[in-house]
Amino acid sequence: MRKTVLILLAFAASSWADAQPVIPPVPSAETLKAHVQFLASPELKGRLTGSPEIRKAADYIAAEYKEYGLEPAGDDGTYFQNFPFVAGTYPGKGNRLEFTVNGKARSFKVGEEFNPLLFSGVGSAEAGVIFAGYGISAPELEYDDYEGLEVKDKAVLVLRLSPDGDDPDSPFATYDRLQDKAITAREKGAKAILFVSGPLDKPGETLEAPRAQGMVAGLRILSLQLGQAAADLLLAPSGKTLKEMQESINKEKKPVSFEVKDRTLALTVDLFQERKSCRNVVAWIPPAVGTSKEVIVVGAHYDHIGLGGDASRAEKKYGDIHPGADDNASGAAVLLELARHFAAGRDSLRRGIVFVHFSGEELGLLGSSYYVENPFRPLKETIAMLNLDMVGRLRDDTLIVNAADTSPEWDGILDAVNDEFKFDLRRNQGGFSAGDNTSFYKEDLPVLFLFTNVHDEYHMPSDTWEKINYEGMARVAAFAGGILDRLNALEGALPFSKSKASTGGQRGAMRVYTGTIPDFAAEVEGYKLAGVQPDSPAEKGGLRKGDVIVGVGAMAVRNIYDYMAAFKGFKPGGKVEFRFLRDGKEQKAQVVLAPSKRADK
After folding, report:
1. 188/554 Cα distance (integer angstroms)
2. Domain boundaries in the chain?
3. Domain 512-600 of CATH type 2.170.30.10
4. What is the residue-wise DSSP string for 348-380?
5. 57-67 pLDDT per residue, tens
6. In 3-state terms, what secondary structure has residue 207?
7. What's the CATH architecture for 93-269?
8. Which of the residues 127, 191, 192, 205 has the least number of beta carbons within 10 Å of its own beta carbon?
9. Dihedrals φ, ψ of 582, to 5°?
10. How far apart are CA 96 and CA 45, in angstroms?
């Protein structure tokens, strides 16, 4: 098998560009394997953005670039492009929850009886207590836990999930997110919300410690999770138990909300954000033929999710190393070998090639967003971007090519290169995706995204180097090299075309579709748009990239959670007013909502 692959690589290298000298083929599968083994090793602990371990990965990549003879393209003549980010939101030391009984304070223990939620607002409050069932207000479903309640300046105690549990097909499924429930309580005037897992869902539930997260938008309502015993203690004056009330609601599908007498809470939520710096690793090979200023960008993210956290798909595996061999040590390794390959053939380059290992992809395309705002060469000189993400699990010779409609020339290039490889190419439309190509596509640049598909080990501790198909990776590397070589030989610019596909956009349990694309890297008050889908309600309403949405209908929008919650109760075909900032000035747009698309669920 390996001999066949090497023959294919050598043949492909000699035929990628007919008029150009032969460039040495990419190295063997064993070389790719060595890169992946290091990047996915226990020593690197999952390459979490901002960690000491990802700095080791960056140093390794930079040393390889230097050995291959690539020129630095980072800050101050180095290979590193540094950028700041919010590394985590953490509980402070001042979290407090207590109530008064007969003049005496009864304090709950943080970490044992309650914990702050990391999307909470911060501050202190005193408030009476109201039990508000599941915290769902859905008049269109003839169910409203808040009906007849006055919750202004109160603390509401609510159950997690819904009267149908966690059934994704339940009509309540669009109302069971904690953030949505917190926003509902806030909009009704509550000072605080306390969540508790129902005894029917998690008997004998114990609290989980708050997990460090990246940038979390504070919801401006104090938000806690409460243990079941603590919740029953709060409810004691009513003579009712949490289990009894949950049984009643689930059976009758009717609220049993009420004000709890003789209970006044005093609470404080104390959170802080840790800011760190991380690095893209950037190098380039200047053109040798002619005087072209144009460059091709080829990239892959090299970060992963560290010890898991909320991004892990492995239940109860928080704290285990998630090595990320396929995601995305595979793409990072292929990028290194493409750099070695083209450095050896630099005399034939008509255009420069910029190689970027991005960090912060798992936190929301942070590194690639920073790069497009601070490019090594002006974006107007970038003719295309090729992204490599999860390219280590080639199966049945199937190679997925995303964003294949972002240039009318892509099909011809892909067909020509694939003549030598005979991959089963699955071409998908849509320039927006969860990958770093999105940051370039939103700047109206042609992009491609090579991918060998998801698998059971995605975001699991079991995504290890032993499971990678290295022979397949070598073929994908050669295929990617063929694309780059044809871009190098291309006469004139590569034309851009805006995709018609409705991929990306807001996700979650929204019943309506607007076609907005969030800018996750933006630190603004509001919901900043990285773009809008073509022919979408947002585009038809006049919204565009860079707008900051600050209101939808009657709701103020301060973050992505507010934006998603604002559409509760709206139906397809309804018209809603958007308030947004453009160039610092508030404007309004009328948007006609469309039915939710499967890609946005």
Report:
1. 12
2. 2-89+275-489, 93-269, 512-600
3. no
4. G-SSEEEEEEE--STTTSHHHHHHHHS-SS-GG
5. 999 999 999 99
6. coil
7. 3-Layer(bba) Sandwich (3.50)
8. 205
9. -135, 120
10. 34
